[in-house]
Amino acid sequence: MSGRIGLLICDDHPVVRTGLKGMLAGEPDLKVVGEAADGRQAVELCRTLRPDLVLMDLRMPEMDGVAATESILAENPQTRVLVLTTYDSDADILRAVEAGASGYLLKDASREELFAAIRTAMAGESPLDPAVASRLMRRVRTPPENALSGREIEVLDLVAQGASNREIARRLWISETTVKTHLLHIYEKLGVADRTAAVTAALRRGIIRL
């Protein structure tokens, strides 16, 4: 895009989108080409606008940031997605990384850190907020047999939201038997005996956030 990095801002808060657009306007090599209020709109705009990079929030109506990231990259693998969110739980981080996000930044980052992250992502590297990097390092150092998988964290996150096994199965497109198997593995890895204890342990360790 004329040598400038074309950006699509995806966030369900208008004030955030306006603030980001104003902040980015002062950078000569950056250009905001569009705004989306949810993941579904972001996917649609990426088809027509072809941005170089998407600044992606995670939790939004219609379609969340992870699902939007997967859809965008499936259609346009060359697009970079930089997560910009307030959430830093293991569940959020792992889902975003597994979906193919190029980097992960928290919204309390400075404008200089945001600009640097955008340019770093466009250079093919993976900018990570220090807090996020430390969480990923902790995951790497955790013995594989004790680390929850991305799917197990998704199941546990839904349990924390009060979802029944049937609801979890429906939302993740798996069988109830598979949900029960995931729960048994979660209990074993966390050293607990039931759903409540599993959620409590996961919240205490920062694996999930309510």
Main traits of this protein?
single chain, 210 residues, alpha/beta, 10 helices, 5 strands, 53% helix, elongated
User: In oligomeric terms, what are we looking at?
Assistant: single chain
Q: Quote the beta fraction.
A: 5-15%
Side-by-side strand order of the widest sheet: 2-1-3-4-5
Structural class designation:
alpha/beta
User: What's the overall geometry?
Assistant: elongated
Q: State the total count of DSSP E strands.
A: 5
Major β-sheet, in short?
5 strands, parallel
Q: How helix-rich are the residues, as a percent range?
A: 40-55%
Distance from N terminus to C terminus (CA atoms, Å) equals 40 Å
Alpha carbon gyration radius: 18 Å
H-E order: EHEHEHEHEHHHHHH
Task: Give the averaged pLDDT, no decimals.
Answer: 90
Count the DSSP helices: 10
The residue ranges in which pLDDT falls below 50 over 5 or more consecutive positions are none
Fold and architecture overview:
The protein has 210 residues and is α/β, with parallel strands linked by helices. It contains ten helices and five strands, in the order βαβαβαβαβαααααα. A five-stranded parallel β-sheet has the order 2-1-3-4-5, with helices on both faces. Helix 7 packs across helix 9. The model has no long low-confidence stretch (mean pLDDT 90).
